[in-house]
Amino acid sequence: MSLLRIQDLAITAGDLSLVDGVTLDVNPGEVVALVGESGSGKSLTALSIMGLLTEGLERQEGQIVFDGKDLAAMPDAQLQDLRGADLAMIFQEPVSSLNPLLSVGEQVAESLIVHGRANPDTARQSAIDMLARVGIPDPTRRAQQLPTELSGGMCQRVMIAAALISQPRLLIADEPTTALDVTIQAQILALMGKLAAEAGTAILLITHDMGVVAELADRVCVMYGGRVVEQGPVTQLFATPLHPYTRMLLQTIPRLDDPPKRELFAIRGNVPSPRDWPEGCRFRNRCDRASDACRTRPELDGTTRRVACFHPAEVPA
User: Fold this and answer.
1) Could you say which residues of the chain have pLDDT below 50?
2) Pick from 150, 167, 184: which residue ends a domain?
3) Cα–Cα distance between 24 and 98 in angstroms, integer?
4) pTM of the predicted structure, to 2 decimals
5) Is there a single domain that holds both residue 36 and residue 156?
6) 57-62: long-range contacts at Cβ-Cβ below 8 A with a sequence spacing of 24 or more?
7) Strand 31-35 vs strand 16-26: parallel, antiparallel, or unpaired?
8) Are residues 155 and 26 in the same domain?
9) For residues 283 and 229, what is the distance between their CA atoms, to the nearest angstrom?
């Protein structure tokens, strides 16, 4: 049984549809990657799970079920009891997400204290240990500093430590390794993978880095224009992408066996704004396989491999 299941989620801003009919699930111990260009609705989907949509954004329909309970219908006080304990999120902007007036150690230890999992002294030591695990040097001294005294990469690691310290049952990681160098990135990915394998933590990984997806994910969910266009196991999706958009995303990745000075592939055009989304398939204006049939919305079809496309690819990439 899925630990998290999102069914037909729709999010609007006034008369604009930003997320439309998103359905996905994450099982205990599984890493599901949510990928797509900026503006595809990935972060909005994540924020809706946590009940953190900003003013002006509204969930119009759909269920967000965690451990059999609909988070979307849950009172805020009850949802607050889950945040930081069973549900944790690594936010995309760590500097603005940290409190500039509280020390790093206080913020990492906070969830343990608030949810009664440790006394202040024990929580403080656990925070120092976790800072060390995410690659922060001299963690005892760093724990006493304010976020404003740290670099952006350091703040990113503090956010990761704060999210991991309570060993949540569901971890939402929104671009968790963007500001990190490759050595620390590998350390963080290994730590997240260990959390999934040993503690059974379900992880929803939001990223544009397909290398990170290949390294960590079990399944991939591809979004475009606020909709899910393809889902499948990571090895199958990389080997035989079915949706033209997925195929183009993978073509943008440089390869070591490419000829020297080969021109990098780019998807033509830009992601349209929600006001300009075409009717039917929202990718059709950028797709080289589009036909008149694509003026009608394709439904997400399939079981293990699911794709929303009238003209899916038929040969390996």
Assistant:
1) none
2) 167
3) 29
4) 0.92
5) no
6) 57/11, 57/12, 57/13, 57/18, 58/11, 58/12, 58/13, 59/9, 59/10, 59/11, 60/10, 60/11, 60/12, 61/8, 61/9, 61/10, 62/6, 62/7, 62/8, 62/9, 62/10, 62/21, 62/22
7) unpaired
8) no
9) 9
The whole domain housing 199 covers 4-86+168-307
297 and 227 housed in the same domain: yes
Q: Measured between alpha carbons, how far is 224 from 67 in angstroms, rounded to an integer?
A: 28
For residues 23 and 4, give the distance between their C-alpha atoms in angstroms, rounded to a whole number.
Answer: 11
Residue-wise pLDDT for 215-240, tens only, equals: 899 999 999 999 999 999 999 999 99
For residue 203 the two structure tokens come to 């992880």
Q: For residue 24, how far is the Cα from the chain centroid?
A: 12
User: Could you report the per-residue pLDDT of 126-166, keeping only the tens digit for each?
Assistant: 999 999 999 899 999 999 999 999 988 889 899 999 999 99
Total of domains in the chain: 2
Going by C-beta distance under 8 Å and a sequence separation of 6 or more, which residues neighbour residue 92?
A: 43, 174, 175, 178, 206
Burial of 256 (0-12, 13-18, 19+ CB in 10 A): exposed
The last residue of a domain, from among 167, 190, 225: 167
What are the tens digits of pLDDT across the range 101-119? 999 999 999 999 999 899 9
